[in-house]
TrEMBL record:
Keyword annotations from UniProtKB, A to Z: Glycosidase, Hydrolase
One annotated Gene Ontology cellular component of this protein: cytosol
Domain Inosine/uridine-preferring nucleoside hydrolase residue range list: 4-305
GO BP terms, alphabetized: purine nucleoside catabolic process
Signal peptide: none
A single MF term (Gene Ontology): purine nucleosidase activity
Pfam families in alphabetical order: IU_nuc_hydro
Name of the protein this chain belongs to: Nucleoside hydrolase
Length: 324
């Protein structure tokens, strides 16, 4: 089985990504590292523990960085925290501060996430795949702290970046925007990097009807995934992002890609960079569209996804969870 470390900032779509990774049975999940992002890192860590306990999983959780490596960028939207809006005293949020699950009984490990990453990778007898579905602060610091970990990494798969679109600014995706310096460190590290971008994730939204199909599976994981999709869709409606009838669920697509690369229908080998210049394009994923067949390039960018295959993979995994 592929050895995997999953780096998250657990909100709603991270939770479904965790469930897909665990329930697929396809990975030797060495640990889940947690970063700040959708919520403060402490809340993201507790959310992570709650999701794993729902599944009966004992995968260790390591709390990591509470801030970006260099600076916070100012989002170009006037809402409290990029993911929420308050109307008549009610918060509608893409990412709940606490998961609608029983409180976690377990605790995070005593070791910092970055230390865990460095020590685990340096000791690895075979290459490890890193999947980062939040701001890449933990990964950026690990590569900065010990550059030799690159020799022990099979691939880094980001849910991050966008080409000619954005969701925090007109040109920047949230995860890369929240820590563009860290993203740049990883992209420049020389390891194989695959970016599962908004271009791919936005092509495969879930409908409310499909949320109902997940709930009808009769598993706790299916019901929880359905709740999260509905929470996201309702918040999107109040935020003015959609009509609330369908909702992209970004992060699990990074896991789905590892399970079956065919879920990404348009993957291009392109040289990449991140804008960190301090201007309007801060956090933007910059891709070179020329020389796409250059075999010296180590970065891959996704532009499309197979909606039916992606949804089927999520449903099949959620059906394996504990009964509701």
């Amino acid at each position: 089985m592929r050895k995997l470390i999953l780096d998250v900032d657990t909100g709603s779509d991270d939770a479904i990504a965790i469930m897909l990774a665990v329930l697929s049975g396809a990975f030797d999940l060495l640990g889940v590292t947690v970063c700040w992002g959708n919520r403060p890192v402490e809340a993201c860590a507790q959310n992570t523990l709650q999701v794993l306990e729902l599944l009966g999983s004992d995968v260790p959780v390591y709390q990591g960085c509470p801030e970006p490596m260099v600076r916070h960028l100012l989002p170009a939207r006037h809402i409290p925290n990029d993911v929420s809006i308050i109307e008549d005293g009610v918060e509608y949020t893409i990412h709940p501060a606490a998961m609608p699950l029983p409180p976690a009984r377990g605790h995070v490990q005593g070791k910092h996430a970055v230390s865990f990453l460095v020590e685990t990778l340096m000791a690895a007898q075979e290459p490890v795949t890193l999947v980062a579905v939040g701001p890449p602060t933990n990964l950026g610091l690990a590569f900065r702290m010990e550059p030799r970990i690159r020799d022990h990494v099979a691939e880094v798969v980001f849910m991050g970046g966008a080409v000619d679109m954005g969701n925090v600014t007109p040109v920047a995706e949230a995860n890369f925007f929240h820590d563009p310096e860290a993203a740049k460190i990883v992209l420049d590290s020389g390891v194989k990097v695959t970016c599962i971008t908004l271009n791919a994730t936005m092509a495969s939204p879930f409908t409310l009807a499909e949320a109902g199909e997940l709930e009808a599976l009769g598993t706790a994981s299916g019901a929880f995934a359905a709740d999260l999709i509905r929470i996201r869709a309702e918040a999107s409606r109040h935020l003015g992002w959609s009509d609330g009838t369908l909702e992209p669920v970004h992060d699990p697509l990074a896991i789905a890609y590892l399970l079956n690369p065919a879920v990404i229908t348009d993957l291009r080998r392109q040289r990449c960079n991140i804008d960190i210049s301090g201007g309007f394009a801060d956090g933007m994923l910059i891709v070179e569209h020329r020389n796409e067949n250059d075999r010296s390039v180590n970065t891959y960018v996704s532009y499309g996804s197979d909606c039916a295959l992606y949804h089927r993979m999520v449903k099949e995994a959620m059906a394996k969870g504990p009964k509701a």
